[in-house]
Specification:
Layout lengths: L1 H27 L2 H6 L6 H11 L6 H13 L4 H13 L2 H37 L26 H37 L2 H8 L2 H12 L9 H10 L4 H13 L2 H11 L1 H25 L3 H12 L7 H22 L27 E7 L4 H12 L4 E6 L5 E6 L3 H9 L4 E3 L1
Antiparallel strand pairs: 1-3, 1-4, 2-3
């Protein structure tokens, strides 16, 4: 298990830097920029969506509602699919973390592969799928801008938002998946004998197909997939096979396939899967047969030898800081706020502490399918876009949404379901 602890120490400074850059992007880049260039059924819209998606630190669960929101705001279907393909594969945080563990070649290949697969998928959707699966809801109005992108915020308020997003919200969203990735990597390292992988070592195509079989239904984020890829390479699998995991693992999972099929149609789902699977296989084979293996294996050898030396004090301090941030994220996410709903008669807090107040137009529903703060933010924006909604507050842990206003439940349900979520209540 020394290798796993070495992985964490190697990654921690770069993870913190990546999270910080992601927070700066979130606070200083307006949402309108992402919607401005994605309209129209042209290759430019697909290209713009791909370029916008590559640096965004969104995992698969956050990408789905964000893409559906862009689609609702008149982004073309091809642009939406290219965004869905490029965004979860990479992000500024995962690119930096990739460089820290498996070197510059992998850090460059990941966004390049995401670029070409997303372009291919988006263009194919524009060519072969002309159907329209999402129509503007006549009972909705334009969404209000989020506080983090409010142009009236001062510079220091934006800095505060950037730090909160980077070290609280991203830790809540990515932290558990990063830990899952480390646990899986540790399990592979400790429990899976090298003889198991020996049968695949000389057959790149077979090893890639096996990795695809396990990675497609599994949920893992772009950053959390890195330690798993390292563990596979330490067991002797090829760099191309590791790249297949890094591409397909974050981009596809069972939940995303269900939502895309439901919201955008079966034909789009088929093109989406073919683009990711085909692109991963092509770039994996190109990596194995055209690029020097030493470009990718030298960094793995350094990780194996790392246990003979003391880790740098700075890296250890960064690791401790990340552990503290993860603990804080867990506490914040599971902290119970005011849970009273005067509509249901559940008085678990004092009226003086309650923020929902007695109001004849309060409505409480439950949003299903949210997994991260991006999901929550998109659900809140969708509900706020419904005519008659004055305010909405969603608790991510329970899915409870407290809505103030006179909107109809059917209009709220339609707005939420267009993002791929469910609603009950």
């Amino acid at each position: 298990m020394n290798e796993i602890f070495n992985l964490v120490n190697e990654m921690s400074p770069y993870l913190l830097l990546g999270f910080l850059l992601a927070g700066i992007m979130h606070a200083f880049v307006p949402n309108t920029m992402y919607k401005k260039f994605l309209g129209g059924k042209s290759w430019k819209a697909v290209f713009n969506a791909t370029l916008l998606g590559i640096p965004l630190p969104l995992c698969s669960c956050g990408t789905i509602p964000t893409a559906m929101s862009l689609r609702k705001e008149s982004a073309s279907k091809g642009a939406t699919v290219s965004f869905l393909i490029s965004t979860p594969q990479t992000g500024v945080d995962s690119i930096i973390a990739t460089y820290s563990l498996i070197g510059l070649p992998f850090a460059l290949i990941r966004p390049i592969a995401a670029l070409f697969t997303a372009l291919f998928g988006g263009l194919m959707v524009n060519k072969f799928d002309d159907s329209t699966s999402i129509n503007p809801n006549p009972s909705t109005i334009d969404s209000q801008p989020s506080s983090t992108n409010n142009p009236h915020l001062s510079f220091w308020q934006k800095i505060k938002n950037a730090l909160h997003y980077a070290f609280v919200e991203m830790m809540q969203d990515i932290g558990k998946w990063l830990m899952l990735g480390l646990l899986i990597a540790g399990a592979i390292t400790v429990f899976v004998p090298e003889s198991f992988f020996a049968m695949f070592a000389d057959n790149s195509i077979l090893s890639m197909l096996v990795v695809l079989l396990f990675s497609l239904p599994m949920y893992i984020c772009a950053t959390g997939s890195i330690p798993i890829a390292v563990a596979l390479m330490m067991k002797g699998l090829s760099p191309g096979t590791a790249l297949v995991l890094l591409m397909a693992g974050p981009a596809v999972n069972a939940a995303s396939m269900i939502v895309i099929n439901k919201v955008m149609g079966k034909k789009t789902l088929i093109i989406y899967l073919a683009s990711i699977i085909g692109g991963a296989m092509v770039f994996g084979l190109l990596t194995d047969y055209l690029l020097p293996r030493e470009w990718f294996t030298d960094s793995i050898a350094q990780i194996k030898e790392c246990h003979d030396h003391h880790s740098m004090v700075f890296n250890q301090m960064c690791t401790i800081f990340i552990i503290v941030l993860l603990a804080n994220a867990f506490i914040q996410r599971n902290r119970k706020g005011c849970c009273c709903s005067h509509d249901s008669g559940n008085d678990c807090c004092d009226d003086s502490a309650c923020t929902c107040h007695h109001h004849t137009d309060n409505l409480v529903v439950y949003v299903e399918g949210m997994m991260c703060n991006h999901c929550k933010s998109n659900a809140e924006k969708a509900i706020m876009s419904v005519k008659g909604v004055e305010s909405v507050e969603i608790d991510l842990g329970s899915g409870q949404a407290k809505i103030k206003g006179t909107a109809k439940i059917d209009d709220i349900r339609k707005a939420v379901e267009q993002l791929g979520f469910g609603i009950k209540g």
